[in-house]
Design brief:
The strands form three sheets. Strands 3-2-1-4-8-6-9 form a seven-stranded mixed sheet, with helices on both faces. A three-stranded mixed sheet has the order 5-10-7. It is of the alpha/beta class and 385 residues long. It has 14 helices and 13 strands. The protein is globular, with a radius of gyration of 21 Å. The two termini are 38 Å apart.
Length: 385
């Protein structure tokens, strides 16, 4: 009986590892296709309202904001929001606005959000103040090159395109765990997006920087529709795609500065997104197992010591995917310095994925919340995890 279970487990792990190798090939093909797609050149650049919610003054807040004000674009305005006038980000915003007097900009106090997604609450306060029909929504931890607006607007002006979402190169603080997370984002997260793009196109968005129009937002019920979701960016792209409107991944790579959290806060952040993804996209979350060839090969090796050679093969496949995204697309300096940490990050990512199957509560901005089956918040008080 035990021999039969041993054989069945070995065959199952071999099948999963084979599927993971297939995923790696698809991810590399997706990266190749993305690299072949050239940046679009705009013939006319419409005026743009840039909306950026702010909350707190982290180490990179001012530098990130200055990159937004330094855009080489004909006509644009910048609308900033804070929840209270006492927010430290307000002083940073005023200082940057004073340094760029030629850029039309306003700081708006949005008030404390009564609902969990404070980002969407702030965007709702900014949207009525926006002068122009074209919008760019950008997070406070994002840094742009000077041609970001030109690139995303040229892409948005293509026929039937309703939304442009930007890939990012993550930068972590000097602590170990933020660097690990950034390494995983640059080598794993982008690979998953490019695989999806290669197979089915883009039916979602990532919210670090999004370009769209007021009319397209209105077509899905406005920002109010997104307020109750944790992953409002995913839902925005998903709802527009469901209406037959185009969602594309930009050629412009932005910088995402993820902070310098310690182990506990970093782990909670990972678990929050794991549980949210599992509740929002159950089939897709299960399929994420195939993105983890190294972890699967370790399990196979533990069951079958003779399978050590497959661990080496899995590392080669994983390294090839990492090179095709972090090096060939993102030009990530982190991978050049900390490539030897990639197996450690893969094991940590696999552990988080496993834990994501348990529980439906998350801790977000100091509030304990329940994530519903559709990825939305349930407002009843959550039990302790």
């Amino acid at each position: 009986m035990l021999n039969h279970l041993y054989l069945a487990l070995t065959l199952l792990l071999l099948a999963l590892l084979t599927g993971s190798f297939v995923y790696c090939v698809l991810a590399m093909l997706g990266a190749w296709r993305y690299r072949r797609s050239g940046a679009k050149q705009g013939l006319a650049y419409p005026p743009v309202s840039v909306l950026r919610p702010l909350a707190g003054a982290e180490d990179n807040t001012e530098a990130n904001l200055r990159s937004l004000f330094g855009q080489q674009y004909p006509v644009f305005e910048i609308l900033l929001s804070v929840h209270t006038p006492e927010d430290p980000a307000a002083e940073v915003a005023r200082r940057v606005m004073a340094a760029f007097p030629r850029v039309p900009a306003r700081l708006i106090v949005a008030g404390i959000s009564p609902l969990p997604n404070a980002k969407v609450w702030s965007l709702r306060a900014l949207l009525p103040e926006a002068k122009y029909a074209h919008l760019v929504m950008s997070d406070s931890d994002i840094r742009h090159d000077s041609h970001c607006l030109s690139t995303v607007m040229a892409e948005l002006e293509q026929p039937n395109i309703a939304l442009v979402t930007c890939p990012y190169r993550a930068f972590g603080g000097p602590r170990f765990w933020p660097r690990m997370e950034a390494l995983g984002l640059n080598t794993d997260f982008l690979a998953g997006m490019l695989t999806q793009r290669f197979l089915n196109g883009m039916d979602f968005a990532i919210g670090c920087t999004i370009a769209t129009r007021k009319a397209d937002l209105a077509s899905i019920g406005g920002l109010e529709t997104l307020q109750r979701y944790l992953a409002e960016d995913f839902m925005l792209g998903n709802l527009l795609h469901a209406k037959g409107r185009g969602v594309i991944l930009s050629r412009n790579v932005i910088e995402h500065h993820i902070g310098n959290d310690g182990f506990l806060k970093n782990w909670r952040h990972r678990l929050r997104w794991a549980r949210s993804t599992r509740r929002s996209r159950r089939a897709g979350y299960i399929g994420e197992l195939f993105t983890k060839p190294f972890a699967i090969s370790l399990l196979l090796w533990a069951v079958t010591p003779k399978a050590f050679g497959l661990v080496i093969v899995a590392l080669l496949f994983r390294s090839a995917v990492a090179w095709s995204t972090a090096v060939a697309i993102l030009n990530d300096p982190l991978l050049h310095r900390y490539w030897w940490l990639l197996p450690v990050e893969d094991v940590a990512s696999f552990a988080t994925w496993c834990l994501g199957f348990f529980g439906k509560t998350i801790l977000w901005r100091g509030r304990e919340l329940v994530v519903g089956r559709d990825g939305s918040f349930e407002m009843e008080p959550a039990a302790k995890v």
